[in-house]
Amino acid sequence: MAAISSPCIRICVIDEASGLCEGCGRTLAEIATWGTMAEAHRTALMADLPRRLKEAGITERPAAPPRAATGVD
Hints:
DUF1289, alpha+beta, 2 strands, two-stranded antiparallel sheet, 73 residues
């Protein structure tokens, strides 16, 4: 099984105001469908996550690079 790229940093808390995960910046819908997305779509979304978090005012999070995982995050 090929590794699936993921921005997950295991801080899985949804910000009520923005609907974004405070750890990675994805929405619940994106998290739920992450494993079925094409890698190009995942890559494009990951590139946009820092902007989303900044616009939502979510800045208190550990700096961690996206990681490759063997499961679906």
